[in-house]
Amino acid sequence: MLIQNNVIDLLNRLRDQFDLTYLFISHDLSLMRNFCNRVAIMFRGQICEQGRTADVFGNPQHAYTRALLASIPVLTEEEAAQKPKVTREERDAVLATSTSMKE
User: Fold this and answer.
1) Cα-Cα end-to-end distance for the chain
2) CB 63 within 8 A of CB 94
3) What is d(CA 48, CA 65) in angstroms, rounded to the nearest whole number?
4) Rg (CA), the chain
5) Mean pLDDT, the chain, as a whole number?
């Protein structure tokens, strides 16, 4: 994490100094939440949701986005309570068979 923090700090300084724009492709949603102004979520090769980071993370509209955000590990019950709710049907519809919830 120390190296990642150093790289992100450097990217932030360069962005501010040179008015840069970055395009990241990442599975690290926690990083994207804290670094990006806008995000796009891809599902099966297509963008299923995009917008301001705060909007997408705060009020996800697509079931896949909700499932992704609900899967981010958290440390406290308070953080867990803030995760989006995903029904079993939604989860089964958007996740691979090997990862869907089974009874």
Assistant:
1) 36
2) yes
3) 8
4) 16
5) 88
